[in-house]
């Protein structure tokens, strides 16, 4: 039996399955039904198109994890629209000096032995094979070696043979955040392209933001560093001059820009063999970039192989994805398996909205143990919080869709390199960003969606917190609640994913510090990790 210490709310008359209302400031112990754990201990299954083959892969002994993001409409990635109150959607970049490498974080006291995790049958990083078994060309193997990728993760091991089989077949692949999906499709891209035609686009990768497109370009270049003549270009706003063709065997772009380039005949798609859509649920959602992706697809060769990747595929998008990528092999996760065990999910019960800022400032010391990302709802609040924190002597930067592309690139590069350690942002960076030093994610505003922000945005929550705990590392997420609405929303998110949330109190900073440090200084992301206070 598991227990959760809950906070409680000033507002009257509500209760949730995970948290129960009680008198203000009086924690109450709630029993969490074992049901969710049982469900979690199943999961991850592969559905092959004709025969549904279920492969039990993981038993998530404890839930200590994460979620996601959502998107606006029609525009490329919300860049260059300097609307102060606007919200942004997704995004991510390319990291310098991060990854693989025994997962030793230089900035703080965290060491994860990847080999242990990859031998744990319950881990999404587990695999039975080695890269040698995947019959990859030697130059790609050399690239993996240089990146210190010793063993494939589960998604890489399972998806790659299916993606590379001939005749090519479509693929819809889901795996938790930070488990190597990018590596998986990059290996497919590099294996499929003909390096003797470096200027001829053969693979197109679509991503929801310029940051993620740049990051993916970097991963292709890194894994493909020994592939002679490899040329990878990005198709993002402001990069390709008018009238000039985009040359490269692999093109990574945002859908709006790619669409424009094809229409203006700056992008020769005639020889494209492969279309990859990263963050595919968001990209295909008609509320987001779906329309643009459909238009792009219509302009591509009809027999192109389509690969769709994401950590989340809500049911309504999955139906659509199956139409977009017909007869696809599918690798799916069950709902209760979506969280990453290395992420300890906490929440702070703030006295009221105004005091959220004070709580944030008090957390600053913990945020700089590693690097941190603070997610807020609007560009305007990102700016305001940045200005206030700077005025109060803290070093923070802000990045959102109102900035010019080059500024966004520079801000993210600074964050990757550790020149800046605390980044305030909107959902534009919620998806895909891979910066291994990120040890803390703060949901200053709980992600909401729908008309009037009427419901929690489950996927965005998962993607946001997935900016930490990358590939077996540990991390902490802290979600701020301050009223009934935010409390209920987080409660629903916890229930949706079967998460045990850990409460932090703004009245006891010693305890808060101890709980956070206990996670960040732990030796590795143990599957069963949970602070003693919430253990059975
Ligand atoms: N086989 C591997 N061995 C070691 N490190 C790896 C391996 N595959 C990927 N990585 C590293 O793990 C980190 C996370 O990988 P990646 O960004 O591909 O995750 P993802 O599943 O695409 O995440 P997200 O859901 O956030 O998009 C990266 O730093 C990457 O370099």
TrEMBL record:
It is a peripheral membrane protein. It catalyses: ATP + H2O = ADP + phosphate + H(+). Its EC number is 3.6.4.13. InterPro entries: DEAD/DEAH_box_helicase_dom, Helicase_ATP-bd, Helicase_C-like, P-loop_NTPase, RNA-helicase_DEAD-box_CS, RNA_helicase_DEAD_Q_motif. It comes from the Eukaryota. A motif (Q motif) lies at residues 129-157. GO terms for biological process: mRNA transport; protein transport. Residues 129-157 form the DEAD-box RNA helicase Q domain. Keywords: ATP-binding, Helicase, Hydrolase, mRNA transport, Nuclear pore complex, Nucleotide-binding, Nucleus, Protein transport, RNA-binding, Translocation, Transport. ATP-dependent RNA helicase associated with the nuclear pore complex and essential for mRNA export from the nucleus. May participate in a terminal step of mRNA export through the removal of proteins that accompany mRNA through the nucleopore complex. May also be involved in early transcription. Associates with the nuclear pore complex. This is RNA helicase.
